[in-house]
């Protein structure tokens, strides 16, 4: 008989249970005793969002214990960065969170700038915020589409791909790349905004509300989808804090923390936006929070296009940057949450050590805790609601 | 939370420490044997979030950094400790379950161990892989593929 799990709400002490590992134990000693089945979900599985391998210990359809097994995409980005010059590291970081490369680049650029005391021009800060918010929308679109697919809804995926394509075209015009940008560099950005870029952005914004409402009605308005979400995968505030969750997953559990507002960077102090917070901590709340985040992102993009200042797009940065010896941490709010880069410099042209504080890495760590006790079908939905990107987890 | 208040917490837990203010923020250096006691006291004293934990090869030993935050006051604190190569630091997962993954990662990539970890398996690499983040491990492997 497996031990009863601690009730996260009733327990006054630590609210998480000891990871007990997977065992194929007989359920009981009665005549209908059954053995638990250990099932491999992934690494090739449509609902694991990349190459994630989850081991599920099943009693019938109920998950008794779960364990995520990662590392299939480990490329040693942190090690490789130790041999790259500071302006070359962005290329690696694009490939860590491949849905939001600009955010990782920005975190690295900010850490380098703070270390080398480089003043970034105001226009560069605004361009950064503009491209990052566009990137956030593109990333959230992918999440919403695949989340629908996890729950069995195919149509929203086709709708979001249409909308995401418009953003990728805009990002391509600005940065030259659709996913691997290498655009935000220490000191500013690589190139100025192309002339007339506000036209396609405004065209996108004019359709955004209607299209998002349409997608939201198809997905969030669907009764089956709602029934799959409500009360599933509840993560309490205490558990969310203890496991270091980030972003929409943290805010859906009632923690009001957003790096853009609380540890301001780029143009965010000058922008007017709200931070959506929910208190239920279930899959539905994570859905609602992220959809609202998309509306807020569009609101910010509008302000950024209207108020884009004149000036330089980059500071004067030496060809080979040698920040003084020391350490620096800089964080941005990536679509998945607080993404931090910790640089240790020894004064040479390459980082001595670079650490990526990956939000999806910490968000995934809760899956052992969150999946246990759910049904297989719910496990798929819970994994989807965490919005993980395996490139960032494995690095 | 001013650095002095943090020092009081560590002092009440009788943890020997060396406080410093660097460009990074408030940094406290403690001995590797005190990590569990120090982090337990700090967690009880208001540092409710383990933002990140990682290890660095300094060339002489392994330096482990715990990045804590008191969310209500947005106060950051870096706890650093140094442990010998192949050394051990007690796991802090019971204080901060967020450390479950990074401890596994630090263990395999820098060759240290965390006694008390409930699931001390490798996280990112396969059995037999060298501790890749050590400075003694070259970035290029001995066998280089040549394309002619």
CATH homologous superfamily descriptor of chain A: Cytochrome-c3 Hydrogenase, chain B
Considering DSSP H and I runs of 4 or more, what fraction of the residues of chain B is helical? 10-25%
Give average pLDDT of chain A, whole number.
Answer: 85
Radius of gyration of chain A (Å): 22 Å
Pair with the most extensive interface? A-B, 45 and 34 residues
| Count of helix runs of chain B | 3
Q: How many independent structural domains of chain B? A: 1
Overall geometry of chain B? elongated
H/E topology pattern of chain B: HEEHEEEH
What does this entry look like structurally?
The complex is a heterodimer of chains A (395) and B (148). In chain A, strand 6 and strand 7 (337-345) form a beta hairpin. Chain A has 395 residues and is an alpha+beta fold. Chain A has helices spanning 77-81, 89-94, 101-116, 122-150, 155-175, 198-219, 223-229, 237-242, 247-251, 259-262, 283-306, 359-365, 367-371, 376-385, 390-394; strands spanning 37-41, 53-59, 62-69, 184-185, 188-189, 326-334, 337-345, 353-357. Chain A is globular, with a radius of gyration of 22 Å. Chain B has a single domain (3-110), classed as Beta Polymerase, domain 2 (2-Layer Sandwich). The longest helix of chain B is centred in the last third of the chain and has 11 residues, at 100-110. Chain B has a five-stranded mixed sheet with strand order 1-2-5-4-3. Chains A and B meet through helix 1, strand 6, strand 7, strand 8 and helix 12 of A and strand 3 of B.
Give me some keywords for this one:
heterodimer, A: 395 residues, alpha+beta, Cytochrome-c3 Hydrogenase, chain B, three-stranded antiparallel sheet, 8 strands, disordered N terminus, B: Beta Polymerase, domain 2, five-stranded mixed sheet, 3 helices
Write the layout of secondary structure elements.
The complex is a heterodimer of chains A (395) and B (148).
Chain A: E1 37-41, E2 53-59, E3 62-69, H1 77-81, H2 89-94, H3 101-116, H4 122-150, H5 155-175, E4 184-185, E5 188-189, H6 198-219, H7 223-229, H8 237-242, H9 247-251, H10 259-262, H11 283-306, E6 326-334, E7 337-345, E8 353-357, H12 359-365, H13 367-371, H14 376-385, H15 390-394
Antiparallel strand pairs in A: 1-2, 2-3, 4-5, 6-7, 7-8
Helix pairs in contact in A: 3-4, 4-5, 4-11, 4-14, 5-6, 6-11
Chain B: H1 3-12, E1 17-22, E2 25-30, H2 35-44, E3 49-57, E4 62-70, E5 75-83, H3 100-110
Parallel strand pairs in B: 2-5
Antiparallel strand pairs in B: 1-2, 3-4, 4-5
